[in-house]
Write a structure and sequence with these properties.
It is built from 3 helices and 11 strands. By secondary structure, it is an alpha+beta fold. Helix 1 runs antiparallel to helix 2.
Length: 209
């Protein structure tokens, strides 16, 4: 199934890792193609040294000019993650992300901004800053990881909700187990109906997925 979820990472000249994760509303070839347009536009903006706000403005312009349907919107999470002891900062919208710190996992949900393209030119995006010490990790994911349903109702987070018991795992295994925690309950009901993008980043520069 073609979908519009996407992610990308670009290494900056200063050693920072610039990260984007997006979720284009809808499915099929149009959503997938739009996701490619947005990812390439973001990558170009980063390589040209544009600020985070400028990146978002370019993404929204790309979205409004390239989308094939009026109801296609993008929920975006762009921003750089600097190597420790510098902070990780960026423009974050729902569904937030998981922060792994000293043997614990917490779900971080910064104040959301308007989805790109919903009201072009009226975005209220703000930067949020969070420390990323050595050994910390964050897992970004799109809403396909927690918004599906089974006969018992909404999955309610699945992997993200149960991630605390997985905190001891290495990055790749942590991601696999988190996704599996959602996929397995949904399997008897046709599996996940929404596409999913997941990205794990480690504060020590290792273990990224």
């Amino acid at each position: 199934m073609l979908g519009g979820d996407f992610c990308d990472v670009v290494r900056g000249d200063d050693g920072s890792a610039h990260v984007v994760m997006g979720d284009v509303s809808g499915h099929g070839a149009a959503a997938a193609a739009l996701g490619v347009h947005l990812r390439l536009a973001w990558r170009t903006a980063v390589l040209c040294g544009q600020s985070q706000l400028e990146q978002l403005q370019l993404l929204e312009r790309t979205l409004t000019e390239e989308r094939a349907e009026e109801d296609l919107r993008d929920r975006n999470v762009p921003g750089p993650v600097a190597p420790p002891p510098h902070p990780a900062d960026g423009h974050h919208g729902r569904p937030g992300f998981l922060h792994r710190h000293r043997g614990e996992v917490r779900r971080v949900e910064p104040p959301p901004g308007l989805p790109l393209g919903l009201f072009p030119g009226q975005g209220d995006w703000r930067e949020n800053e969070m420390a990323m010490p050595d050994g910390d990790g964050i897992m970004l994911f799109t809403d396909g990881l927690y918004e599906d349903r089974t006969a018992g109702g909404r999955l309610g987070g699945g992997g993200p909700a149960e991630a605390g018991r997985l905190v001891h795992l290495e990055a790749q295994t942590f991601v696999d187990a988190s996704v599996g925690g959602v996929s397995l309950p949904a399997a008897p009901f046709g599996g996940l109906r929404d596409d999913v993008a997941v990205l794990h980043l480690s504060g020590d520069g290792g273990g990224g997925v």
